[in-house]
Design brief:
By secondary structure, this protein is α/β, with parallel strands linked by helices. Helix content is 35%, strand content 26%. The protein binds nicotinamide-adenine-dinucleotide. InterPro entries: Gfo/Idh/MocA-like_OxRdtase_N (IPR000683), Gfo/Idh/MocA_Oxidoreductase (IPR052515), GFO_IDH_MocA-like_dom (IPR055170), NAD(P)-bd_dom_sf (IPR036291).
Length: 323
């Protein structure tokens, strides 16, 4: 059995997924669409496949099982709805969209169709996350501290709020997803935002965001993000419960129980596993999709709530609904 996959968006992250997928013996990349013809042609050439100018041409021309949607935040919505309308499985890179309404529409369509979906929250496949979960056991978490301290990524759409949605929606969403996984759902957020990255005009994203999160089970959370640095400084989540401090990032887990620090280096390959799990689900061989669209919608709603609280200055409550 072969899984026939198409791509919409042929940029950085698409190239990464295509590289991973092309190493799977049961996958064929059968078409790549990008509104930038040179980009579609470049990635298509690398994988010996056809290039298209938009998702509609890809869907019209190829027999597909699944589509990877790897476009910037502003371009989500119509593409996913068309993929679902065609009865195909759907992999979407985070963030789901610029706003909540678009993602809710896609989630509703996916639910109606009973589609296999997955979102690129690959941190959920880190071994160190599993280890952190085991170490915590059933100790209630009291404090979670998330950070994303980075540069402005070198893609043209990122510095504009109507391109990326801002740093919390676009980047810190990985940390918020981890916080939901390890600490639980958030019921209320307040936040503050400060400044803009240098040389950015009207409509630019914030330069720094600080947020306070209230978790349903009583834990407190703090999130700090900035894009003012010229390098990726640190991104991850610290978790504190009685007698244990954990610091999780993409490459390691630092554990402190008061008897010295233990550093566990990440040994798995989460970026491969996220694709493998999706393909297995599409081929009905596995059930290890850890962030289906509906679940990622909850993380996206949380990121949107933080962004809204930061721009409005008023706390935002997250009602407990799926719809
Ligand atoms: N999970 C991760 O680790 C990870 C890593 C990198 C990027 N991402 C996410 O992936 C998304 C894309 O990032 P990137 O770095 O690949 O960006 P990019 O700018 O390199 O690529 C995006 C591509 O989408 C194309 N595009 C835009 N609108 C389109 C449309 N309507 N139809 C078809 N193609 C369209 C652009 O022309 C561009 O080639 C972002 O949301 C980013 O956050 C996730």
């Amino acid at each position: 059995m072969t899984c026939r996959i198409g791509f919409v968006g042929a940029g950085n992250v698409a190239a990464r997924h295509a590289r991973v997928l092309s190493g799977f013996p049961d996958v064929r990349i059968v078409g790549i669409a990008d509104t930038d013809a040179a980009r579609a042609a470049g990635l298509a050439r690398e994988h010996g496949t056809a290039a298209y100018g938009d998702h509609a041409a890809l869907l019209r021309s190829e027999r597909l099982d699944a589509v990877y949607v790897c476009v910037p935040p502003f371009a989500h919505g119509q593409i996913e709805l068309a993929v679902l309308d065609a009865g195909l499985s759907l992999f979407v890179e985070k963030p789901l969209a610029l706003d909540e309404a678009t993602a809710r529409r896609v989630a509703a369509a996916a639910r109606r169709r009973g589609a296999v979906t997955a979102v690129g929250h690959h941190w959920r496949y880190l071994d160190v996350v599993e280890q952190a979960r085991r170490l915590l056991g059933d100790r209630p978490v009291r404090l979670a501290v998330g950070v994303w301290l980075d540069k402005v990524p070198p893609v043209p759409w990122w510095p504009r709020r109507d391109g990326s949605g801002g740093q919390v929606i676009e980047q810190a969403v990985h940390v918020l997803d981890l916080a939901r996984l390890l600490v639980g759902e958030v019921t209320e957020v307040s936040a503050h935002e400060s400044g803009h990255p240098p040389d950015q005009a009207e409509g630019a994203v914030g330069a720094a965001t600080g947020a306070l999160l209230r978790f349903r089970d009583g834990a407190t959370g703090i999130l700090g993000a900035t894009c003012l640095l010229g390098w990726k400084h640190r991104a991850g989540l610290e978790i504190y419960a009685e007698g244990i401090a954990l610091r999780i990032s993409e490459d390691r887990l630092v554990v402190d129980t008061g008897a010295g620090r233990r550093v566990i280096v990440e040994a798995g390959d989460a970026r491969r596993r996220v694709d493998r799990a999706f393909v297995d689900a599409v081929l009905r061989r596995g059930t290890d999709v850890r962030a289906p669209y509906d679940d990622a919608l909850r993380t996206h709603r949380l990121a949107c709530a933080v962004a809204r609280a930061a721009t409005s200055g008023a706390p935002v409550r997250l009602e407990d609904t799926d719809g």
